Amino acid sequence: MKIRNWHIVTALVQAAIALPAFAQRPDMMPYVSILEPQFVPAAEASLVEEDEIVIGVARGKVAKAYPATDLAQHGSVNDQMPDGPIEVTWCGVCSTGAVFRAQLKGRLLHFDYDSMVGANEVHKDRETGSRWQQSTGEAISGPLKGSFLELYPFVRTTWKEWRRRYPSTVVLKPLPGYDERIPALRKLQKANRASNGEGEAPKAAFGHDDRLRPKEMVAGLRIGTDEKAFPFAQLRIARVVNDRVGGAPVLVVHQPSSDTTTAFEARAKGKVLQFQAVDADTSSLTDLETHSSWNAYGLCLEGPLKGTQLKTLILMPEFWFAWSEFHPATKVFMASNTQPSEQRK
Fold it and tell me: How many angstroms separate the Cα of 238 from the Cα of each of 188, 212, 231, 232?
């Protein structure tokens, strides 16, 4: 196995106390970013199981899937899409998956794992040495301090659902040695999903908002200065949410079979729309204003608005303790009439 940049490995070993707990085990491979990712066609992705979580990105005819079991061994994948460079990130401590445009003001950036802050990963760019909080995309130190990376459209879904949507997708190919650890990591991730939010926040987490359980999975949305968390447990009940965030009409769609959550601006041709599910898994919707038929990804398939694509809003999926500590003013969506005692702290 060829590992690039051994100086990074040495630095990580020397600062092992700052590594995520899962990356300190002696049986783990070096926790280094992927700079030259390789991919295989979906038909050759024998290591990926149907219900496995992937981070999916698509642009034009290019669709790529990054399995969480592999991302968890690197934290960062520096890659390229038709419209520019991206960084695909995953923090195994807080289950935060996010994709950013890997450039700022036209300058290309390459990222490595640096440390943990608030139980969330911090990555450092090689070009300026600035350190970036993964959960927010903000530079917290260095020459670019105070800058924000732009989120790149992505979805947290299952391999089965992503492959159904994009049959010609390619999948990140594990590096030699790292592929051997995938079965063990898969068991760990499945155990985390089965825990249904049970468990305490890491001691390093500086936010302790008790409106939800620390490890409850949420989809966080920020529009302007307004922020809202949509707990998966509540979305499985509601499935379709017609809401307003930052003054904008918002549609949130949750497909329970895969826990795929998507969000859009609920407006087409100047008209604000209200939606409802047509089937149990919310793969089909209809709007109440024009009675057009839509899929779960904001595309109108039949009716007066046929061919219309709703504007995509990018959600940040992660444990509640991570979302709430970096977004302390967040509101919380509840499907029932029982609201949290305090919607805004």
Answer: 28, 17, 11, 10
Q: Is the pTM of this model over 0.85?
A: yes
Q: Report whether 299 contacts 251 (CB < 8 A).
A: no
Rg for the chain, CA atoms, rounded: 20
pLDDT digits (tens, 9 = 90+) for 62-77: 999 999 999 999 999 9
Q: Left (φ > 0), alpha (ψ -120 to 50) or beta: where does 302 sit?
A: beta
Separation CA 157–CA 143 (nearest Å): 35
The candidate with the shortest Cα–Cα distance to 144, out of 111, 96, 98, is 111
- Domains located in the chain, CATH noted: 6-188 (2.102.10.10), 217-332 (2.102.10.10)
**Contacts with 6 (C-beta within 8 Å, 6 or more apart), sequence order:** none
Contacting residues for 283 by C-beta, under 8 A, at least 6 apart: 255, 295, 296
Question: How far from each other are the two terminal CA atoms of the chain, in whole angstroms?
Answer: 50
CA–CA gap between residue 6 and residue 289 (Å, rounded): 59
Question: 3-state class of 332 per DSSP?
Answer: strand
Q: Answer with the residue of higher pLDDT: 201 or 153.
A: 153
